[in-house]
């Protein structure tokens, strides 16, 4: 399939079967078909084949390939080969075409026998370079269908055939022949002209346009490939005797026990049999804080083990895991939404037959009116050449190329014109919290020291020293903060280090027992030969107030106790990104209502929402919940964008009218999104909206010109007032005007130049 007309033909043919409905995805080349039990898959495939295309059922997923079936490497390899072939055809066509275009369009450079050199260079372009158009045109002819490929093929064939006739039989091959421009075709003189520039210019322009479009569509399969890459390749399975053996993850069965070491991903959904650890679920559930798990608690496949050793019993494998469910949701959502129908392609179903009919009618009219046969053929060729859809084919991809290049400079990566069109009309944006509005990692936000105690720096130094032995993310946050706050002071060594799940850590630092633990935790029993710590006293008023403020802000709080005395309160949390408030405010000013949806706790979610002024909040959302929320909002008539960064956001991103991913997020989220904020700057979302509005205005102007040009030029060619040579020049000029208009986007800025000048002037004053 090459355009939306192909998609429509396949869908309509399948829908003619009783009880069958189909949604065809042009970008991925897949169709989702609902059919009665009595209609077999072979019958559905046969309908597609009779329509003029090829089809086959997707291969069943293999265990080793992960939840997405075919591995990402295999899929990417096939796509790379196809793009390499397209690029090679385009480059060879360009190298052969440029000399022909220059010599044909500049009479002063035409030397003796120049026309024969151009003919030799044109032949491989007209046959091999334009072969994809010829092949698809012939396929359409066999099925009584005409597409834009038909018009391109006929334009190339007519131009080349007429040029060959003129060279060999019409006198245009004589040495010293020069070809000047003629606005009007002269009766009997058309055979002395060759139209080789049209024979090479048409395939070159359309090949370039479609290559740019294919590049823009390439990212559609990235979400599924990245989800497949999250699947664990092999796993350490425990046997009945307690030994371990590594087996491919696809061989893991429900009920088997497997080992997850620190830094490894959990192979599949299961229940912890033994061990304690903190799991990083931010990419799977959106939970910003690591989750402590122990015996009897459930774990999710794809989560990263942050610290201890776990033994897990598998409760779901293969297609039943949460990661596989997310993959299926992304696949279905993409199939339902990726129906980007170009205006030019949609018009092709009417435009192409009309042009073909008009060319035949023009030929018959002039012959019937007694005109010279050469003049009649010249007028018919002019109609085909002037109507070749170069400008139509370039209107969208050139604007897209310029816009995406400029957007990349501004930190905005746009997936295609459908994304721009949708972004322009979005009125609701569903915002993820972790990694989107916040940094996505734990950070010390406040350290409050007890009055009259050791002091803030001393307490922080001791806490950082004892946490050096911990692998817990909270501990790493404390150590990192201590090293930044005390750059000139080394953290001392710790002895007798102990870590207790759900309690905290303790150790001896410079002869003192230091404990970093959760509020309300009792002191640990003393080690042998060490006196017990005194009973926990009440917190001083200043520390109690700091503890209450931190909990009100939904921060995680730990106490620093030295020899049983609380010396400091440390608040740790996932802090807002710089510019989050300004970004949300700008979106609201653009008429886009923000909605917060997160897998985090309600207290954390509402605290962030209050800080940003967001009124609509949904907390504790699973990936399925987020996707359902997007569906509900769309059912209410809203045009919904989703802004997220994790695997947990991938399904919602794909189901939304528009998906926006943070460039610092997961590959799955980026692949499922239509727009990516490359620099991880949420403020670029407002820039994306403004860029979309400017780009769509440019595309509309290009299409208006392209259609207007055809509306004016085709009638002129039909009445014999526009020769093929002039038609070729007009066709090329229309393409150049479209490209030039699109290139203006390369200098676009989010702030108008007049405003920028005023701003610079005020700063200077």
TrEMBL record:
Its main location: membrane. It is found in: Cell membrane. Residues 1-56 form the HMA domain. Keywords: ATP-binding, Cell membrane, Membrane, Metal-binding, Nucleotide-binding, Translocase, Transmembrane, Transmembrane helix. It is a multi-pass membrane protein. The chain crosses the membrane at residues 90-108, 114-131, 151-173, 193-212, 346-367, 379-403, 699-719. The keyword Transmembrane helix applies. Residues 53-82 are annotated as: Disordered. It comes from the Bacteria. It holds the Pfam family Hydrolase. Gene3D superfamilies: 3.30.70.100, Calcium-transporting ATPase, cytoplasmic domain N, Calcium-transporting ATPase, cytoplasmic transduction domain A, HAD superfamily/HAD-like. InterPro entries: ATPase_P-typ_cyto_dom_N (IPR023299), ATPase_P-typ_P_site (IPR018303), ATPase_P-typ_TM_dom_sf (IPR023298), ATPase_P-typ_transduc_dom_A_sf (IPR008250), ATPase_P-type_domA (IPR059000), HAD-like_sf (IPR036412), HAD_sf (IPR023214), HMA_dom (IPR006121). Belongs to the cation transport ATPase (P-type) (TC 3.A.3) family. Type IB subfamily. NCBIfam families: ATPase-IB_hvy, ATPase_P-type. This is Carbonate dehydratase. It comes from Streptomyces lasiicapitis.
């Amino acid at each position: 399939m090459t355009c939306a007309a192909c998609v429509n033909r396949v869908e309509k043919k399948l829908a003619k079967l009783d009880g069958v409905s189909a949604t065809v995805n042009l970008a991925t080349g897949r169709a989702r078909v609902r059919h009665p039990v009595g209609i077999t898959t072979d019958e559905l495939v046969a309908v597609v084949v009779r329509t003029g295309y090829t089809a086959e059922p997707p291969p069943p997923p293999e265990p080793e390939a992960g939840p997405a079936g075919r591995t990402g490497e295999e899929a990417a390899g096939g796509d790379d080969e196809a793009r390499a072939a397209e690029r090679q055809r385009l480059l060879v066509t360009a190298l052969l075409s440029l000399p022909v275009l220059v010599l044909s369009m500049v009479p002063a450079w035409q030397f003796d026998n120049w026309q024969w050199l151009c003919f030799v260079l044109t032949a491989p372009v007209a046959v091999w370079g334009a072969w994809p158009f010829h092949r698809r045109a012939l396929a359409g002819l066999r099925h009584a269908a005409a597409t834009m490929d038909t018009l391109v093929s006929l334009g190339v064939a007519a131009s080349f055939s007429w040029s060959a006739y003129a060279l060999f039989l019409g006198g245009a091959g004589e040495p010293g022949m020069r070809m000047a421009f003629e606005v009007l075709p002269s009766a009997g003189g058309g055979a002395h002209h060759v139209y080789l520039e049209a024979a090479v210019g048409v395939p070159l322009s359309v090949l370039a346009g479609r290559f740019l479009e294919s590049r823009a569509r390439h990212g559609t399969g990235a979400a599924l490939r990245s989800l497949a890459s999250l699947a664990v390749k092999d796993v350490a399975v425990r046997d009945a005797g307690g030994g371990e053996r590594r087996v491919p993850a696809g061989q893991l069965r429900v009920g088997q026990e497997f080992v997850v070491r620190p830094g490894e991903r959990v192979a599949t959904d299961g229940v912890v049999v033994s061990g304690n650890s903190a799991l990083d679920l931010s990419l799977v559930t959106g939970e910003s804080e690591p989750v402590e798990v122990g015996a009897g608690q459930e774990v999710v496949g794809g989560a990263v083990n942050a610290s201890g050793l776990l033994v897990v019993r598998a409760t779901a494998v293969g297609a039943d895991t949460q990661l596989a469910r997310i993959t299926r949701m992304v696949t279905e959502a993409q199939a339902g939404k990726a129906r980007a129908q170009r205006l030019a392609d949609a018009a092709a179903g009417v435009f192409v037959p009309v042009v073909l009919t008009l060319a035949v009618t023009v030929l018959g009219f002039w012959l019937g009116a007694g005109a010279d046969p050469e003049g009649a053929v010249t007028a018919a060729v002019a109609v085909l050449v002037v109507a070749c859809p170069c400008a139509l084919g370039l209107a969208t991809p050139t604007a897209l190329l310029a816009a995406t290049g400029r957007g990349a400079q501004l930190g905005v990566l746009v997936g295609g014109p459908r994304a721009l069109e949708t972004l322009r009309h979005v009125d609701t944006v569903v915002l993820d919290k972790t990694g989107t509005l916040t940094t996505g990692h734990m950070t010390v936000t406040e350290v409050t020291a007890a009055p009259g105690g050791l002091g803030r720096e001393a307490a922080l130094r001791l806490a950082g020293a004892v946490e050096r032995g911990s692998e817990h993310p909270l501990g790493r946050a404390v150590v990192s903060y201590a090293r930044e706050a005390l750059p000139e002071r080394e953290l001392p060594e710790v002895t007798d280090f102990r870590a207790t799940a759900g309690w905290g850590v303790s150790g001896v630092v410079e002869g003192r027992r230091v404990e970093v633990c959760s509020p309300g935790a009792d002191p640990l029993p003393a080690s042998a030969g060490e006196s017990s710590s005194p009973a926990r006293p009440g917190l001083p008023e200043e520390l109690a107030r700091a503890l209450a403020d931190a909990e009100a802000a939904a921060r995680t709080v730990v106490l620093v106790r030295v020899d049983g005395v609380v010396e400091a309160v440390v608040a740790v949390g996932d802090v807002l990104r710089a510019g989050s408030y300004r970004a949300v405010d700008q979106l609201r000013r653009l008429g886009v209502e923000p909605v917060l949806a997160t897998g985090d706790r309600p207290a954390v979610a509402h605290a962030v929402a209050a800080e940003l002024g967001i009124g609509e909040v949904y907390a504790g959302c699973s990936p399925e919940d987020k996707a359902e929320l997007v569906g509900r909002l769309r059912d209410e008539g809203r045009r919904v964008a989703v802004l997220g960064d994790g695997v947990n956001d991938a399904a919602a991103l794909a189901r939304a009218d528009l998906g926006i991913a943070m460039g610092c997020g997961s590959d799955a989220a980026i692949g499922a999104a239509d727009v990516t904020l490359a620099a991880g700057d949420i403020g670029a979302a407002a820039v994306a909206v403004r860029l979309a509005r400017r780009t769509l205005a440019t595309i509309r102007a290009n299409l208006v010109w392209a259609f207007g040009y055809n509306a004016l030029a085709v009638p002129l060619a039909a009445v014999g007032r526009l020769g093929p040579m002039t038609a070729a020049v007009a066709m090329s000029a229309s393409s150049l005007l479209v490209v030039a208009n699109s290139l203006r986007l390369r200098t676009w800025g989010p702030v108008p130049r007049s405003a920028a000048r005023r701003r610079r002037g005020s700063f200077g004053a």
